[in-house]
Write a structure and sequence with these properties.
The protein is of the alpha/beta class and about 300 residues long. The protein is built from 11 helices and 9 strands. Helix 6 links the parallel strand 5 and strand 6.
Length: about 300
């Protein structure tokens, strides 16, 4: 079978420094993760840097599952991947951690606040302490004031947060004082189950717009083609023993790509989960693909317009 031709400019890359987390959130598969909770060995982080940059790719996020600020060498990892962003639940963003982050070339930090209602927040971030999060976030905003780091405070859109607005978030965190901070709105997307809940709706086809738009390296070195494959059901290689070029040129990868193109999901269990609610409609998937391939800002805007589940 011939190797798959790929558009490298389209690929987004995620590196999971750790699959450990201090929370067990309802929208996340981490509480029932079917692989170990572990940190990536440092030699493997260094190999990932050589492989990813050697292929002319850039890292988008320093996480998959897990809380990246729990990784002991998070600042060193950022220096290896200065183009990458970091997303955190904010509950370990102490003054010391903040100092280490601000001493790196990190360009964007996303703090997942999700809700400023103390009664709703723990329903979204299971095990989280809202008062602690608010205190740490406000302290970091002050600590990073005037710094070039862009800080995103995430507001979640779900049935539980319909009464909260961007303006509410701005007032709560006094964002007029911090030019480097802004509020972003995101819908909650199920990573593990595909049934509608108060947090997220059903999927209707490939939410990434195609078979290979992501390349995610797990903490154990195994590599999947999709950021929704949290359990590693569709692994196509192992960075501990292979190069990324070898994986992408492999017969396994070619067979997975061909099966996706033919809608043969018998050997693609994670893909089958996304397609199980009628996503095989070619016209619908064409629309999803177009939306997913828009630049991030435009994609978010379009998805807000078409996402009416929480109205």
């Amino acid at each position: 079978m011939k190797p798959v031709k790929i558009n490298r400019r389209r690929i987004k890359v995620g590196l999971e420094l750790t699959s450990k987390c201090n929370l067990r959130c309802g929208m996340c598969p981490l509480p029932v993760l079917r692989r170990p909770y572990e940190d990536m060995e440092w030699w493997l982080v260094e190999k990932a840097e050589r492989e990813i940059h050697g292929m002319g790719l850039e890292l988008k996020w320093l996480h998959e599952m897990g809380e990246p600020l729990l990784y002991s060498r998070i600042d060193d990892a950022i220096r290896l991947f200065p183009e990458a962003s970091v997303s955190t639940n904010g509950l370990v963003l102490t003054e010391e951690i903040g100092k280490r982050l601000l001493a790196t070339p990190l360009k964007r930090l996303r703090i997942c606040i999700d809700s400023i209602n103390p009664e709703v927040y723990p329903q979204l971030r299971t095990g989280g302490d809202f008062n602690k999060l608010a205190e740490l976030t406000k302290a970091f905003l002050e600590q990073a004031k005037g710094h070039p780091l862009k800080i995103e405070l995430q507001k979640m859109r779900s049935r539980l947060t319909t009464d909260e607005t961007v303006a509410d978030f701005k007032r709560f965190f006094e964002l007029k004082k911090y030019e480097n901070a802004r509020i972003i709105e995101k819908t909650c997307e199920a990573l593990d189950v595909n049934e509608e809940t108060d947090l997220h709706g059903k999927f209707y086809g490939c939410m990434q717009g195609g078979f290979f738009t992501w390349l995610v390296v797990f903490a154990d070195g195994r590599v999947t083609h999709c950021c929704y494959d949290a359990h590693g059901d569709q692994i196509f290689g192992d960075l501990k023993t292979q190069s990324l070029e070898e994986m992408i040129s492999s017969e396994r990868f070619a067979k997975m790509h061909e099966a996706f193109a033919k809608n043969d999901l018998s050997e693609l269990p994670r893909c089958a989960e996304c397609f199980k609610h009628g996503g095989k409609d070619p016209a619908f998937n064409s629309i999803l693909s177009t939306v997913q391939n828009l630049p991030d800002g435009a994609k978010d805007l379009v998805r807000k317009v078409i996402d009416l589940r929480y109205k």
